[in-house]
Design a protein that fits this description.
- The complex is a heterodimer of chains A (748) and B (161).
- With 748 residues, chain A is an alpha+beta fold.
- Helices cover 27% and strands 24% of the residues of chain A.
- Chain A has 3 domains: 149 residues, Aldehyde oxidase/xanthine dehydrogenase, molybdopterin binding domain (Aldehyde Oxidoreductase, domain 4, 2-Layer Sandwich), CATH 3.30.365.10; 179 residues, Aldehyde oxidase/xanthine dehydrogenase, a/b hammerhead (Aldehyde Oxidoreductase, domain 3, Alpha-Beta Complex); 298 residues, Aldehyde Oxidoreductase, domain 4.
- A 7-stranded mixed β-sheet of chain A has the order 3-5-1-14-11-12-13.
- With 161 residues, chain B is α+β, with helices and mostly antiparallel strands.
- Chain B contains 5 helices and 5 strands; from the N terminus they run ββαβββαααα.
- In chain B, helix 2 runs antiparallel to helix 5 and helix 3 crosses helix 5.
- In chain B, a hairpin with a 2-residue loop joins strand 1 and strand 2.
- A 5-stranded mixed β-sheet of chain B has the order 2-1-5-3-4, with helices on both faces.
- Chain B has 2 domains: 76 residues, Beta-grasp domain (Ubiquitin-like (UB roll)), CATH 3.10.20; 73 residues, [2Fe-2S]-binding domain (DNA polymerase, domain 1).
- Classes of the chains: A alpha+beta (748), B alpha+beta (161).
- At the A-B interface, helix 1 and helix 18 of A face helix 1, helix 2, helix 3, helix 4 and helix 5 of B.
- The structure holds FE2/S2 (inorganic) cluster (2 copies).
Chain lengths: 748, 161
């Protein structure tokens, strides 16, 4: 669906073939684990078998003496003179534990050796003396007085200042608009629920891998599959106490991230092993390491209420939201307060967000972090409200929808957004208007929001003698952004897509780029690319001014053509480039922006039909439609792919995925067999409807599209299951067992 | 530990190497033979990123020992294209935007080729059933299944020719 006033573009909106695809379909593309350097050693990381323990001592002598071993390191190797491991910051102890381990799978020591096998064997000889402590695994239990405390120094941050006692509650964030208590008493209808979701993993197929080489002059090179070369460089520099300008990060191709490859794990360890051995060292995780030792996304407990008038006007929303941060302080619940109410215009709001540490891995972002669980609560309450009021849930959503000028959940009014448009698109869709017949079947819908970020980006554009251009990008390309950026440059400078060659370059070769996250690259790095394109045209005009002997300011550039003021001389970009660069000195320009923190918001709305087998409890997805305001779809096929991929990750989260722990805090399902992600058999084709409401904050109207599609599925499927079975689902995952329990077929 | 001598054919070429008895085929391919197109996603048979065709059968190379390929005929992702000519499946994966990060792509292409070579008329249900051993976390499978459906006619034509 296209808005009537959509501008006409030449390249944007087409579907060119991505240039990196040939390498990827032939096996030639180099990913993190494919790095090979001359004289390279292999490393192995030893991990904690305990969820919570003090480390009394670590004896590495036997491992060091093992034939073929070149170095063994622990956190002590990262201490400055006079420091002990107990003084090391969280950033460091999460990559090699200091005086304590906080989760099963936390890295404790690392070995470099002549082969992977030797490093593994030697690691078994490392003697760690643990004093095992009681772990705390449940977010609400961790908040209780008397719970085992992870960090003695932690005091809860509250609006009134820090708490007095050690606590597992990192922070209590409070957001209030209006007078929610009084408004609740005035509501005709109130629905409420006590919702919970489990810790889940991003599930990228490529395990983390990093290779480092520390030269004797202190210059360090790191090859890694990471979501941000510059943030990885900074974190590594901080951990190593080494100047970041002496570290060069070279990005390999990356096999998925979804927020899980923003933190560093292996990079500083590989660098330290390289420093000790004088050789390049490669470290790579296996799947168990990935599940147990990287950052999954929080489990949650959300108690929420929605109040409305009898004609369906939402008046008040109140939610108490506790989010697991895992082993160290995080900001997940704080994020939840920024997104929970965004889809609707609600006058009175109270949100209490609790960030809580538990003995699980330090959590990380996962696509629209914190929003899916918040929507799991909100969107089921909206569905319940529609049932109570006997209204169509889509019409109820439309009636209460946020629009331009509505107070956003962070207090500022929204710019032009497209939530109403996507709910209307659902109402008009073939899916919503097709009857769903048959027993045990139900249809569910839900909305979702992610704020999307801008941040800092920088690119370089070099003009080649033949008039084509090379675009050097510093943002990790997770899913095709080399293409979406090249398309924006081609549009800006008026050349064909095929005349722009985009590459991801290392941290020495381009200005600063923030992490690839928050759906920001096509938006923020797109703005930098647009800037570079404008700067390039200006630089070409300067050169033309001399050649044509006219003032640069009087030269026109329109529809890909330069022309002199009197129209007597003109040429396409390529022709002029051949003239002023092909026969002149080289030309490289850059574009650098700070695109701001927020980009105006992305909204998604999903429709799903399910069938629930009453005997086995299995939920089958029969039909699925993902609708989204995508701003301007630069490459529509890639945008569809984002919607489809996000929806299927959400389906997995809703139906099967969870971290499963024993009472001692050991993860029991750290394999793809037992941590069940969706396969081809679990999902149908995912239909998409792209609604384009251009984002006024971007020159081509781009909105980030990667994150919103994981937000609605949890609630949409729960609503569908509720309609199919007559039983509300307050807890994820809606596994067969859970369905049988909640429908009374088996005991809890 | 004494090494074993393996003589095999990989992508049509004779290859010889020495290996420890415990080394997996995947790690021999990647670490010893420099064929890094086969990927490791799980190392225990649950993701298909390491798929190769061994004597005509689709296998997870992480679950096969390197010594087992002595005397065998092996095709890896590096052997799917015919020189500069991409295989119809490779071309349809590109045309249909069936890859995002691409780490799963070699496995999917090797697996889909094995299916279409024996069942060129496979329909969507059959394709989904066959590919259930290959995980992709980026695409939601829609465009992958479509790419396999789209490559089938060309493979049928090739089979008849
Ligand atoms: S690496 Fe072999 S099946 Fe996953
Ligand atoms: S394209 Fe990334 S896992 Fe399939």
């Amino acid at each position: 669906m296209v808005m009537a006033d959509k501008p006409q573009y030449r390249v944007i909106g087409t579907r060119p073939l991505r240039p990196d695809a040939i390498d990827k379909v032939t096996g030639r593309a180099q990913y993190g684990a494919d790095t090979r350097q001359s004289g390279m050693l292999r490393g192995y990381v030893l991990r904690s078998p305990h969820a919570h323990a003090n480390i009394r001592s670590i004896d590495t002598s036997k491992a060091l003496a093992y034939p073929g071993v070149k170095a063994v390191i622990t956190a002590a190797d990262f201490c400055l003179p006079g420091q002990t491991v107990a003084d090391l910051p969280d950033l460091t102890t999460n990559i090699l534990a200091g005086s304590k381990v906080y989760y099963h799978g936390q890295a404790v020591a690392a070995v470099a050796a002549i082969s992977d096998e030797v490093a593994r064997e030697a690691a078994r000889l490392i003697d760690v003396d643990y004093e095992v402590l009681q772990p705390v695994l449940d977010v609400r239990e961790a908040m209780l007085p008397g719970a085992p405390v992870l960090h003695e120094a932690m005091r809860t941050r509250t609006p009134e200042g820090p708490g007095a006692e050690p606590s597992n509650i990192v922070a209590h964030a409070v957001v209030v608009f209006g007078d929610p208590e009084a408004a609740l008493a005035d509501c005709d209808v109130v629905v409420e629920g006590d919702f919970s979701t489990r810790m889940v993993h991003q599930g990228y197929i490529e395990p983390q891998a990093a290779t480092a080489m520390w030269n004797p002059d202190g210059q360090v090179t790191i090859w890694t599959a990471h979501q941000g070369s510059f943030p990885a460089r900074q974190a590594t520099a901080t951990i190593l106490n080494h100047p970041s300008s002496k570290i060069k990060v070279v990005l390999t191709e990356i096999g998925g991230g979804f927020g899980g490859k923003i933190a560093v794990y292996l990079e500083p360890v590989a660098a330290m092993l390289s420093k000790k051995t004088g050789h390049p060292v490669k470290l790579q995780m296996d799947r168990v390491d990935v599940f147990e030792g990287t950052g999954p996304t929080p489990g949650t407990s959300i108690r929420a209420k929605l109040g409305a008038t009898k004609d369906g006007n939402f008046k008040v929303y109140m939610a108490d939201m506790a989010y697991e941060n895992g082993a160290y302080a995080g900001t997940a619940a704080n994020y939840a307060t920024m997104v929970a109410t965004a889809c609707y215009d609600i006058e009175h709001v109270r949100l209490d967000g609790y960030d809580v540490v538990v003995n699980k891995p330090r959590t990380q972002d996962y696509r629209a972090p914190s929003s899916p669980a918040a929507a799991f609560a909100m969107e089921q309450l909206v569905d319940q409200m529609a049932e109570k009021l006997n209204m169509d849930p889509e019409k109820l959503r439309l009636q209460n929808s946020s629009r331009e000028g509505t107070r956003g959940s962070m207090g500022m009014p929204f710019a032009r957004i497209g939530h109403e448009e996507i709910v209307q698109a659902a109402l008009d869709s073939d899916h919503y208007n097709s009857p769903l017949e048959g027993p045990n079947r139900g249809r569910g819908t839900a909305s979702g929001y992610w704020f999307n970020v801008g941040l800092r980006s920088s690119v370089n554009v070099t003009v080649q003698p033949d008039g084509t251009v090379a675009l050097s990008v510093g943002s990790t390309d997770l899913s095709g952004t080399r293409t979406s950026l090249a398309m924006q440059l081609a549009e800006t400078i008026g050349v064909d897509f095929e005349d722009v060659k985009a590459a991801v370059v290392d941290t020495d070769s381009v200005g600063y780029n923030d992490v690839t996250a928050g759906s920001r690259v096509t938006f923020g790095t797109g703005m930098a690319t647009y800037e570079a394109g404008k700067n390039l045209i200006a630089a070409m005009k300067e050169r033309l001014a001399t050649t044509w002997n006219v003032p640069a300011d009087d030269i026109q550039f329109e529809a890909g053509k330069f022309s002199s003021p009197d129209g007597s001389k003109s040429g396409t970009f390529k022709e002029i480039a051949q003239l002023v660069v092909g026969r002149g000195p080289g030309l490289t320009v850059s574009g650098s922006v700070n695109a701001g923190f927020l980009q105006g918001g992305g909204f998604a709305h999903h429709i799903v039909d399910v069938e629930v087998d009453p005997d086995t409890g299995k939920v089958q997805i029969l039909r699925y439609t993902a609708i989204q305001d995508v701003g301007t779809a630069i490459h529509p096929a890639y945008v569809e792919g984002q919607l489809q991929g996000g929806a299927v990750q959400g389906i997995g989260w809703a139906l099967n995925e969870e971290y499963f722990y024993d009472d001692n805090g050991r993860m029991l399902n750290s394999s793809f067999l037992d941590y069940r992600m969706p396969t081809t058999l679990d999902v149908p084709m995912i239909d998409t409807i792209l609604v384009e409401v251009p984002n006024p904050l971007h020159p081509y109207g781009v909105r980030g599209v990667g994150e919103p599609p994981i937000v609605p599925p949890l609630a949409a499927i729960a609503n569908a299951v509720a309609h199919a079975t007559g039983v509300r689902q307050y807890q994820l995952p809606m596994s067969p067992r859970r369905i049988l329990q909640t429908t009374g077929k088996i005991e809890e | 530990m004494s090494k074993h001598h393996v003589i095999t054919r990989i992508n049509g070429e004779q290859v010889e190497f020495l290996t420890d008895p415990g080394t997996s085929l995947l790690s021999a391919l990647r670490d010893q033979l420099g064929l890094t197109g086969s990927k490791e996603g799980c190392n225990n048979g649950n993701c298909g990123a390491c798929n190769v065709v061994l004597n005509g059968e689709l296998v997870n190379s992480c679950c096969v020992l390197a010594v087992e390929i002595n005397g065998a005929e092996l095709t890896t992702i590096e052997g799917v294209a015919d020189g500069d000519n991409l295989h119809p499946l490779q071309q349809s994966f590109i045309n249909d935007a069936a890859l995002q990060c691409g780490i799963c792509t070699p496995g999917f292409i090797v697996a889909a080729k094995a299916l279409l070579e024996r069942e060129p008329d496979a329909d969507e249900a059959r394709i989904r059933h066959w590919l259930a051993g290959n995980l992709c976390r980026c695409t939601g499978y829609d465009k992958i299944v479509q790419a396999v459906l789209d490559a089938a006619p060309e493979m049928r034509a090739a089979a008849r020719a």
